[in-house]
Amino acid sequence: MTETHPHETGSDYTPLRSLAHRQPLMVTPATTLRETLYRISQSQHDAAIIIDAATDLPLGLVTLRDMLHVISFEDGDLDDPVAAHMLGAPPNLAADAPVHRAKVMMAKKGVAHLLLTEPDGRLFGLVTQADLLGLRAGGAESLIAAIGAARDLDAMVLAADQVRRRGAELFATGMGVEALCQWMSGLNDLIGMRVIELIEDEFELPPVPWCWIVFGSEGRLEQTFATDQDNGLLFVPPEPESTDAIRDAFLPFAQSVNEALHRCGFERCRGNIMAGNPECCLSADEWRQRFANWLWVPDPQALLHSTIFFDFRPLYGSSEPVDQLRDWLIAEAPGHDRFLHALAEQTLSVAPPLGWAGQFTFDRNRDFPHTIDLKLQGARYFMDAARLWALKWGVWATNTAERLRATGSGRGRLGEDTAAEIESFHLIQRFRIHQQLQTRDPDAVNRVDPDDLNELHRLMLKEALKQARKLQSRLRQEFPL
């Protein structure tokens, strides 16, 4: 990313620069180990960044643990220059990257420190694992280790199954829905990244910047226990004329990744929204043109695509072109009133399943009578409205709760009203997850019969759907049809 996004306020989509509350300890390459240790002892730091004093560019990193090891076991001299023992080119991210990306990178690389840099490469700050508590909750350390140690697809299949089993245990013990979804999404990100790494070794890919991107629930960090693949690939050709040839070179690799993810339990997308589809393996310019076409001509197909594609985020590879696409989208979308109104009309086309007297209503599904699809007639109301408001207000986040938080003040909502919207969304998600863990029928994973709920849960579900009705009323006022 190339700029701060002030609308973001939540945890996993907070820009990293907001977590770097103190100035890091910086030393020059010629500083001795003795001096560096002394300066660490006089501060609360456990690491020092080696920096080029002339350019402010970071050269390396040394931790207190590293220095003690060098002195104790490698015959290091206290008068050695710190540059002789530093870690060169330490892991780094843009200061405006979201927290979630840092969590995944630190877990993947097994590091405790991450440098934050400005767009020109200058150092901004340093974040540590202590700043990013969350992903390692719930006993994830062993799962992260298993994913990182996997050397073939069979091992990845086992690791993915272990993640789902542990996630089910956390849900059963009462872990909050938002925390659980972020936990699951973080580990699923690591699974996806490791799968791509394994498959990448089997192909000779074009030497151009490229990135695997994710859409839908994975893009929103809202993956539950019944999720299919929604992904794509973005690449940057050296010249437009080479686009088709580069796409043809990436497609066999992308199709192999899609097959490997399917084996790991991430079902193939029924709509073929997968990177192995040539329509989802595009250059950066083609992706931008496709989004522009959807904004300019909001036909039903464009609106359908917006509910999936507009929730994109980078997963693996060069994230900068994807961040640039997001920057362009959040600057461009607010000016397309026709598209936003059409999106609102689509969102309002399905009413919450409550009758005039507050009783549940049903969609007459022949296979599952007397049930409510809590994805299409529950969570969708909050997802669609949050996406619409995010596009209108130019919000970077893709997560539904984060979008509602970030746009609340712009919509004139009180904090407690926004909290009620988010709590209702998460309550519906909890009912969905419970159902997903109870059935193996893929067509029933989101369907709940209210008669199967106890009286308190029926009341809670009705109140959540009433919040969805209120949310739709606000949309009608804001986007009169």
From TrEMBL:
Superkingdom of origin organism: Bacteria
Alphabetized UniProt keyword annotations: CBS domain
InterPro entries noted in UniProt: CBS_dom, CBS_dom_sf, DUF294_put_nucleoTrafse_sb-bd, GlnD_Uridyltrans_N
Keyword Protein transport part of the UniProt annotation: no
SMART domains in the record: CBS
Residue ranges of domain CBS in the record: 20-78, 86-142
Entry-linked Pfam families: CBS (PF00571), DUF294 (PF03445), DUF294_C (PF10335)
Molecular function per GO: [protein-PII] uridylyltransferase activity
Coiled coil regions, renumbered to chain: none
Protein name in UniProt: CBS domain-containing protein
Organism encoding this protein: Thiobaca trueperi
